[in-house]
């Protein structure tokens, strides 16, 4: 029989997986952030834009589904984080709003703002979207400042009846004051650029851009590794937000995330395997001149690593969205999830996901049996 | 409630209205144009006539421009439930989040995957595969509309749920009751068919411009043929589904219906106002001022539409506030004060329940829970202060409703005339009709926007009917912050709208490929 606890953990896994896929798909943003540095001529720019422009919709959709799934399965997180860390999410959303029109509008005549403005929009989304998302995810480990008081809804004294309140006036921007959050933000930013470089090596039928992308893979992979390892090691050696399984009390535990890894060896193994896969994708592309399949290893590795990081934050009696101003307000997989019936209904819907992945794969194969060249762009029309 | 939070609520409402209003400029065009371009491509695949391909490709280009800005304005709506309405999200996220997630899984991926093939696949996939992709984009857009309307309908008519005082939220108990809610089904068909009408008006408008300029005449006539048949059918369906919507509103949201009709005093055998002018001197719901300066009424039609009985009693605003009339289930309607009292009893019982639980007094908690359940249907009234709080903006709802209905009637006639003249091959020479056709599109957009004004303004003050008013639903974000994001989005969306119009005008002037 499927228990409530199983469904809660299942949905945390789905959220983790969606987070992993989203971070992988951020290669589109990574590519946008190096539109000007990677492509030197107008033709090169057109090719880069077209390669990314045929993918942006999926990244966008993944973000929307990630948000929707989080809302459905962990509504308390949705209410607390989005309604509290207002500026963090608004910044992310704003950057995605301007991205959504930019690919379509930038090359169109009479586009009002001029092509350069749309390219700046893409740059903004590429830099801010990735970095701030990374910072937001880092707070799953470092904590935020909020207090939940559900009974406030019927506060009969006439005061505010908001159930989840943010404990400072910066509304999320205070996360930028934490160096550890910066390290994950920068890691996601450089990872997105690394993945974009690998994607160009794989997809473009253009020698100069391919070679340049190989170099860019290395240039971005080094800072990515530095920032990612800094974040990982720092987190593993820090205190973490543990939950007493009997009393549900949240308390600080030294080396909590390291302990989680040790106590959940499957996650440890998969995390390491994911890191190795990412590294293989990067190094094989950089050092083997004819190798172009790095994006698949790096992409799969990214999905696995990010998924495992989310699991590390939520499984094994850990508060996945902790509050350091009010420890007992911290959100756990158990206290923040939807009811059993909702999780069940959503679990049935989630069975459609393999079908969705299958038709996405089919459509990709049908559309892109071969690499994208300038000739294709000119013949088929594009951005 | 303190003033600061009041300002936050007002700015949050303004922001939601702004972003939804912008989004809804583009969505109906997408929904309508999707079907039209799919039909055109089907004609191409069936006949092999290259002119149909050219026609379909042109409208797909226009679709793409419109789709992009629709996506851009849409993302903020989903996340706004969290950023600006956190109490709402916490209180009903267990139910409300599911349709949004399902929308993403079953609709957005379908659209975003196959739209790429539609745009870039002409030389890469077979004709049939391309056609299938175009129809799948159309299906995705319609599925997306369905799920978001399920979510919206649930706010207007909350079903399939139960309040859990322990978690302080409403929880889903019957998924299918939510998905198959009659309000949702009606809302979906009414919204989608009206969007088809907007799409048809859009295609007709641009095609009429070509006829006026005597350019791309064959293309324009082909487009008008499809659009006029489609538009006429769409508006017939709009009328049918509108009747269904009116019935549902009467049953579930009597205050909204009363506001739509400017009906203050209820009566048996109530007529439907065809045209009317409200008297601005009417300031209170219970003063003696006649609400109308003048009105032309169709006798008994409101009773007939609302209750399927020409002599049925339709409650007015005063009746809904003061209660005392007999409800369809035979019980007597409660007054505002009685409902408020019950709402406050539920509030107090909930606070007591939480206290008893925290102190381990399980028997007391069970008793409080019973009180909550007995009074929960009026929970939202406990947040309201006075009678006027439960009355929406009557003039806005009334004029929005009647203008929408009149424009709908106009389009039924318009498309019938255009279709007829197309068959008689007289369309090319009728310059006056070209002008009418060009400008009619603005009317279609107006009517579509007004439809949402009726739906959303008319249900105020509720985010969830009778359960949670807007005052209790917002996030604790200072008003200045929300004001800032309001102006950010107002500025950005306005700029993007200008850009979209300029791009579209240029593409239209350029016309389809020769």
* Strand line-up of the largest beta sheet of chain A: 1-2
Share in helix of chain A: 55-70%
β-strand number of chain A: 6
Report how far the terminal alpha carbons of chain B are from each other.
64 Å
Describe this structure in words.
The complex is a heterodimer of chains A (383) and B (514). Chain A is mainly alpha-helical. Helix content of chain A is 69%, strand content 5%. Chain A contains 16 helices and six strands. Chain A has a two-stranded antiparallel sheet with strand order 1-2. In chain A, helix 8 (115-142) crosses helix 9. The model of chain A has no long low-confidence stretch (mean pLDDT 95). By secondary structure, chain B is mostly helical. Chain B folds into three domains: 3-253 and 392-507; 261-322, no CATH class; 336-383. In chain B, 71% of the residues lie in helices and 6% in strands. In chain B, the strands form four sheets. A two-stranded antiparallel ribbon of chain B has the order 1-2. In chain B, helix 2 runs antiparallel to helix 15 (479-510), helix 6 packs antiparallel against helix 7 (217-252) and helix 6 (182-213) runs antiparallel to helix 14 (431-457). At the A-B interface, helix 5, helix 6, helix 7, strand 2 and helix 14 of A face helix 2, helix 3, strand 2, helix 11 and helix 15 of B.
In short:
The complex is a heterodimer of chains A (383) and B (514). Chain A is mainly α and 383 residues long.
Summarize the topology.
The complex is a heterodimer of chains A (383) and B (514).
Chain A: H1 4-25, H2 27-33, H3 35-38, H4 42-53, H5 56-73, H6 75-84, H7 86-106, H8 115-142, E1 146-148, E2 164-166, H9 179-203, H10 207-237, E3 240-243, E4 250-253, H11 256-263, H12 265-287, H13 294-314, E5 319-321, E6 331-332, H14 340-350, H15 353-367, H16 374-380
Antiparallel strand pairs in A: 1-2, 3-4, 5-6
Chain B: H1 3-47, H2 50-83, H3 86-120, H4 127-156, E1 161-164, E2 169-172, H5 175-179, H6 182-213, H7 217-252, H8 254-261, E3 267-268, E4 272-278, E5 292-298, H9 301-307, E6 313-314, H10 317-322, H11 336-358, H12 362-375, H13 394-423, H14 431-457, E7 462-464, E8 468-469, H15 479-510
Antiparallel strand pairs in B: 1-2, 3-6, 4-5, 7-8
